[in-house]
Design brief:
Helices cover 19% and strands 5% of the residues. The N terminus is likely disordered. The termini are far apart. It is globular, with a radius of gyration of 13 Å. It is mainly alpha-helical. It contains two helices and two strands.
Length: 117
Amino acid sequence: MVIMGSPPSSPNLAQGDFNCDGVVNGEDALLAGLFEGNLPFSQIFGCPDLNSPLNSSGAGLPDSAPVEGPEVFGDANCDGEVNFGDGIEVLKWIAGLPNDQEDPCKDIGSPLVVPVG
């Protein structure tokens, strides 16, 4: 993985934005496949690693920021693993097609972190 850019301005992450650039697009779908194939990819500095827990500071989030959605970053279909299936769900969302997500799961494009306060 290559780290690039400046850190995100807030701990708010979006479901499906695997590189934390603020946009859910085909690049995010590609990252899921690269991750599954153990191939190099890049993310914005401060972005949680794919497959890292979202409810702990180990993912780069403050413990005071509760997370709604998947248990690990990058699991867009909430099936418990980060793989190309998550990228497929991102592509379906981009095309306006219905997603196959395990309940409860945040909709792609929606925030993963509930604002504190």
